[in-house]
Predict the structure.
Amino acid sequence: MILKMQNSSSQYVVSGFLHRARAICQLVFLMIIMPFSIKAQTTSYNQLSNEYQFGRMINDRWSAEVYFGATFSSTPNESRVLKTNIQRYFMVWAHYFLSPRWKLSSSIAYFYNKDVPDIGQYLSPEWRLSIQGIYFFHKTRYTLSTRSRVELRYIMNAESLFEFKYRYRQQLKFMLPINSRVFRQGVFYVMTSEELLFKPNAKTTGVTFFDRNRFEIGGGYFITDDIQVELTYVNEFMPRDNGNEMYNCLSFTFTFNNLLINLKKKIFPKSVEDEQVP
């Protein structure tokens, strides 16, 4: 009986926190976009994206990841989502665990952009360097974190010339396991995040300082301790001087940790056991 009361109390606290956090995010979002919504109409686009993440722990402090992804979208000239592949990309990440609460990361990425509505209906490849820090609020029943990221983008403009652009991103993310108290094999989970993006020098090019609001909600499943799949809905709102834009995206993410090591264990179990013998 005591355990049931504790679980009920914990769920009540989590539910209350989610409602308050979402209300605060919505209030901040509305305060930011209200001036833009009054003077401009919004054009909506539907999208489908998929991403494959491969990660590996190097030691107790360092880990590395490689991402591959693609995005399909409707455009002003084509309403069918799967008809137009607007973006393909890959990223290489390095993570350093400074403490149990802090994780510092950096990445280099290449984006092959073509027909991206937000950028323009032209080829616009991009190199991107990112530096970020993630702070974890340690909770026993759920995971709460905040992320700060700075992006240096070297991107081709409409005149086929590369130029540097800067962007700052601030995110709040919440994850909750459903059928367990920890994230492990066989566990379903729900997640949501709210992120604000800013372009410091955007006004010089006729675009607002506030770049966009990115809201994500969905869930996932741990097939094994090292393999998980995630399905989310992503809504991005972008206020623009000549008309606001909104993306509605269905996103699939597949994560594989220590893939080569696990395959080696399956295919050559004997050799792995021999390597572990001192």
